[in-house]
TrEMBL record, chains A, C:
InterPro entries: AcylCo_DH-like_C, AcylCo_DH/oxidase_C, AcylCoA_DH/ox_N, AcylCoA_DH/ox_N_sf, AcylCoA_DH/oxidase_NM_dom_sf. Residues 187-312 form the Acyl-CoA dehydrogenase/oxidase C-terminal domain. Its EC number is 1.-.-.-. It is an enzyme of class 1 (oxidoreductase). One of its GO terms (molecular function) is oxidoreductase activity. This is Acyl-CoA dehydrogenase family protein. The keyword DNA repair does not apply.
From TrEMBL, chains B, D:
Residues 231-378 form the Acyl-CoA dehydrogenase/oxidase C-terminal domain. The keyword Transferase does not apply. Residues 13-119 form the Acyl-CoA dehydrogenase/oxidase N-terminal domain. This is Acyl-CoA dehydrogenase family protein. Its cofactor is FAD. Pfam families: Acyl-CoA_dh_1 (PF00441), Acyl-CoA_dh_M (PF02770), Acyl-CoA_dh_N (PF02771). Residues 125-217 form the Acyl-CoA oxidase/dehydrogenase middle domain. Keywords: FAD, Flavoprotein, Oxidoreductase. PANTHER family: ACYL-COA DEHYDROGENASE, ACYL-COA DEHYDROGENASE FADE29. InterPro entries: Acyl-CoA_Oxase/DH_mid-dom, Acyl-CoA_Oxase/DH_mid-dom_sf, AcylCo_DH-like_C, AcylCo_DH/oxidase_C, AcylCoA_DH/ox_N, AcylCoA_DH/ox_N_sf, AcylCoA_DH/oxidase_NM_dom_sf, Mycobact_Acyl-CoA_DH. Belongs to the acyl-CoA dehydrogenase family.
Length: 320, 383, 320, 383
């Protein structure tokens, strides 16, 4: 990482540790503006910077529509007319966005815009969203003031909702909905690395400070080897996410993003399950954060393509 | 003594059909691990119906109980599970304390405690684990001192199932203040309904409570309520642990079978059953459950049981059950990440997934069980 | 186990430790006669006794057509006319048998007998076999002096061969070829328990006697826990085989036998792989027996239905 | 100094096409782990062709070598692997000893040893592991004593790849007889062609030999052939181990990719590729290999490398490769249990399966690597 990237990481980690005030997050830190082009009021950073922010958001288990808004903004083709209306508002944080990819819809042209019919489930952070980017399989359309109905989630730190489209107007924002999914994969992957890293950190802390049989838990080789395996899996996940974020503008992104999602969500799932085991009784309680990390890891694993689905996708895209 | 009852399967089935009805009908399928919070009062009354009919203590040897054979007990457990009988509240007394008293107690203790266990008029809980010691039982720090004709108990226990409904608790406490580790512990019988005892439910990752913390702050137990000699508590406590295996396993497995059937039904309903990758995992789960059954049948019929058999069995079922919870979530797919619409509560799959995280921790964690097995296979090392 | 079964186990283990002389194995010990009915010159023992013998054969990595001959004999319906010719010779060890289930053939009646055309692969212990029980999917036929062509095997302790049938005469020996496969599954399962048990035994011995970092390997908790897991898996396999052998004459055998094959061969595969790891360098050498156990475990796993195939079979037979 | 060569991919490709032909054509795809016994003489000659052209020591810093960047070395490795270049015989000298001498050696040592490594006129092997000590390098019992102007070395090494073709061996030996563990070890350079050195090939579970036992029985090395100070061998030896990671990894991964492609081809040929359960495992293997590549690229480009990075990488690739061997056997199914018809030899799948058992043992077993990683993550404990 460059010194600038290190500084970004430190500052957002510091900020997230104090909460997730949307006004400060978008205004003072400008996190939603990060990867939006300068011509649309953004900073024109790369996906690598976005990944750093999302990883720290995952580590803090941030409850915020940051990921959804970021993916929505990145999915918009900045050269299309709608971009000029949407991106500045998304960059400024005045508009909260999300994407709807898990469902079906049909789009028919109507004048400058389109009319959409369909329904979607598992739309992330649906409740606060003012715009949702909807895929009909061939293109992406922005629907403002969408009919999103929140669903209560197992992961209390991130909401979902269903979206119903019935003769709903939408504006074309991209001809490449597959790229929107790749972006979502990369974003969830980066976040999952943060989830895994934080869970491993508090687990290690527990093992170093708690004793059993008169010695610190961290001295038991069976636990040490388990932690070593978790560290190795996390390091692999870091590498996959690093590669995917760096490949954002190359054709390899189409395999690198789902691959990173597969590897990083598996790592987070493995680490957070092991974390509860290694924490013992305390990890099973509501008051300890371990279960919240497990629930986020579980959600990130099952949403937007579970591991089997991702492996099938990879096999279809792989040069085998 | 309870009335004579038939242990033939059809008669048990008929009895359950006749009694698990009316006011008790809501109990079908309730209670048990992960749902221990459900219908507590009604289940306590149900236990007394079971007790009055003579179903509690079936396997206790005469003259304390019926001395039913393992095969007969298996029949009862299987029928009970098939009928959807609710999770039992009296089992800690029936299966843990009672065998301990029969083996190590005094006549007076047996006369005092066995009948109310059999009638379910007194429920028990187990005071072993302590915060900070995890599965290291020899790290017990709860203290008891003999003050004239009574013990005064001070300390804290955790992972105490059903403490909030229990009338009594068997407590492992350090009675020799100069002792460390396994020496100087005693096995005390402590009444729960007294000022010196406070029960605080632990809210679990499921959002419900099943385990408790129990605080003893000068709690009182009569001087003769020590099982075995003072200082002999480690031996008595580990003998209690060895009773945990047994025929109850087969009833537990029928519960597992119901859970697996629900996963299969969900997979059929959402079409994932037709995905060979999912079907392979379902077949693996089915095979694993058959394996658990075969293992229980073999070990129950063994003439000279493996002393580490309880650890082997625990590792097998806990791991299987945990994987079933993971499979249930994967079968549900993205829908597993949202709660049941109304009430705003966990789905069965979510409850199974989350609650089975505890299976490999409580009652001796997987790590402790592996230590025990390794001590047997490779010889002991100092720990 | 009964005292008689314990005695049987001890005596065959003792015998196998000195080799596998077919004359003594069949004559003095009468091992091929064990489960054949007394009316055909056998001892009329149950499959439980057969299992004990095969487990010890597996533990000794016996190179002998005992398993193949036993399965061939048990597959014969003793009430059919051919049984009176075949079973006494198989019981006495004068005739070595095997089964051919992995292939296809057609059978057409010709007088008292049948004429068979087809081909089979992976016929166990093909080289010495004087009779092979061949399945056409609906029945089992005994082919004497079969055209068996040996194949060199990875597992040098057990041969295989291909069988070619071309207008070959065969006699009906069973209407239930599926039972023959169940028997083969149960036999391979019992043998695999022996393979796993022996491999675990020499691995434990190594860990107890070899030191690293100045202390016996057996004191390292990570290795202890691994061994504990192997022991647990082996115990599960023992139970599955125990149940299958006891269920031989019940309808449950049709699920219990492939289940035992699945669980026991997986246990043997896991133990023998772990064994080489835990033995370190010495386990990688030709001179140590570890690789022979691994090769037998691998063969038992892949022959007569690999794990995926067995799980599919079980799913089709399970009451789900 | 070798002639100037172009490090552009097309030029490398052209050079390889022009040279890996004629008498060297049979070498394509030979050698390397599991096939190290193949064509030894011809491969030794091939190494000298490589050396004469200047391909050996590309990454050594000037003035010793070309100082090629990592990216340039990657290009060479990738092209070499794509061309099916044979397993290298000079890599132990090039990638282990040479960096050690460059960092810790004397000028005289560098002048004496680097040129013949670069020309492949002297091949090297590594004398670390000993029987009975496994991966515990500090348990070294091979002794060396200074006798006038020479070291006399006595002891035994195992797992010594290519000892039978090597001219020299770098040996970790105990030079202070009173020392234990990491103290008192020295790093000696010992000629192999002398009466005091005996090489005995270890026949492996594959039936072939690749590793050797090396017996030193009063073997002689000049007094100045110690790298670093006498007694400083532990530090030097562990620094050598840290060089094992590096760009060679990417070449290794192209070998892995070829092996995976062979498994895919076999699965397509016998139809198992259409079985979703098998396809899922193949996809997992493919994903794992991509992951290895991404991991190597990240760690090679890191400005401050993780000191346990070599252990992490070893655990990742060894486990992946071993699972590939298992997958290859499963894809083959029952046919994996019979040998290739003629010659009566292992199939590629069998060789892969069997030989990869060693991946998690040699060069520091998985257990040792986990110890190293855990020391970093959890802090050291005494071992």
């Amino acid at each position: 990482m460059t010194p600038e990237q290190e500084a970004l990481r430190a500052s957002v980690a510091d900020f997230f540790s104090t909460g997730a005030d949307w006004g400060r997050l978008t205004g003072e830190l400008g996190l939603t503006a990060l990867a939006i082009g300068e011509e649309h009021g953004g900073f024109g950073a790369s996906l690598v910077e976005v990944g750093i922010v999302l990883e720290e958001a995952g580590a803090a288990l941030l409850s915020s529509p940051l990921l959804a808004t970021t993916v929505a903004a990145l999915a918009v083709d900045p050269s299309l007319p709608a971009a000029a209306d949407l991106l500045p508002a998304l960059a400024a944080g005045d508009l909260i966005g999300t994407v709807a990819l898990d469902g079906t819809c049909t789009a028919r042209p109507a004048g400058d815009a389109f009319v959409l019919d369909g329904s979607f489930a598992h739309v992330l952070d649906a409740a606060p969203a003012g715009v949702v980017m909807v895929s009909d399989g061939t293109a992406l359309f922005a629907v403002t003031d969408p009919d999103l109905r929140p669903q209560p989630t197992l992961d209390q730190t991130r909401g979902q909702g269903t979206l119903v489209l019935w003769q709903t107007p939408g504006r074309l924002v991209s001809h490449n909905p597959a790229h929107a999914q790749d972006l979502l994969h990369a974003a969830l992957a980066a976040e999952s690395v943060g989830v895994a890293r934080a869970a491993l950190r508090f687990t290690v802390e527990h093992l170093r400070t708690r004793s059993q049989f008169g010695v610190p838990l961290a001295t038991f080789q069976a636990l040490r080897h388990r932690v070593a395996d978790l560290h190795v899996q996390l390091e692999q996940a870091v590498s996959s996410v690093w590669f995917a974020l760096g490949a954002a503008s190359t054709p390899e992104f189409a395999t690198a993003a789902p691959l990173a999602k597969l590897i990083a969500t598996e790592a987070a799932y493995t680490v957070t399950r092991a974390s509860i085991q290694l924490l013992g009784g305390i990890g099973f309680t509501w008051e300890h954060d371990a279960h919240r990390y497990l629930k986020r890891a579980t959600a990130n694993r099952l949403l937007a393509g579970d591991p089997v689905t991702l492996r099938r996708l990879l096999l279809s895209r792989a040069d085998l | 003594m309870a009335p004579e009852i038939s242990l033939r399967a059809p008669d048990i089935r008929a009895w359950l059909r006749d009694h698990l009805t009316g006011e008790f009908a809501p109990l079908v399928g309730t209670g048990g691990p992960g749902r221990e919070h459900e219908h507590l009062d009604l289940r306590a009354r149900w236990e007394r119906v079971l007790g009055a009919a003579g179903w509690i203590g079936l396997g206790w040897p005469a003259p304390y109980g019926r001395g039913a054979s393992i095969a007969e007990q298996v029949v009862f457990f299987e029928e009970y599970a098939r009928a959807g009988g609710p999770g039992r509240l009296s089992h800690i007394g029936e299966y843990l304390l009672a065998p301990t008293l029969i083996e190590h107690g005094t006549d007076a203790q047996r006369r005092r405690f066995l009948p109310p266990i059999a009638s379910a008029s007194e429920l028990w809980c187990q005071g072993y684990s302590e915060p900070g010691a995890g599965s290291d039982l020899a790290g017990v720090r709860t203290r008891a001192t003999l003050d004239g004709d009574r013990w005064l108990v001070t300390g804290q226990k955790v992972w105490t199932s059903l403490a909030h409904v229990a009338d009594w608790c068997f407590v492992l406490a350090r009675t020799d203040p100069a002792s460390t580790r396994k020496a100087g512990l005693s096995y005390l019988l402590v009444p729960m309904h007294q000022p010196g005892v406070t029960v605080r439910p632990i809210v679990q990752l499921t959002g419900t409570s099943e385990f408790n913390e129990v605080f003893f702050d000068g709690a009182v137990a009569d001087a003769d309520l020590v099982v075995g000699a003072p200082g002999d508590g480690w031996r008595i406590a580990t003998s209690t642990l060895s009773y945990e295996r047994g025929v109850a396993t087969l009833g537990q497995q029928l519960g597992f079978a119901r859970e697996l059937a629900a996963v299969v039904a969900a997979a059929r309903a959402n079409g994932t059953f037709d995905d060979p990758v999912v079907a392979d995992r379902i077949a693996d789960a089915w095979a694993g459950l058959q394996g658990l059954r075969h293992h229980a049948l073999r070990t129950l019929s063994a003439t000279s049981p493996d002393p580490t058999g309880a650890s082997v069995a625990k590792l097998l079922w806990a791991g299987w059950h945990q994987r079933l919870g993971e499979l249930a979530m994967d079968v549900g797919g993205p829908l597993s990440t949202v709660l049941a619409e109304a009430p705003d509560d966990l789905t069965d799959s979510q409850r199974l997934f989350l609650f089975t995280r505890a299976d490999t921790i409580y009652g001796g964690s997987d790590e402790i069980q592996r230590n025990i097995v390794a001590d047997r296979v490779l010889g002991r090392v100092q720990r």
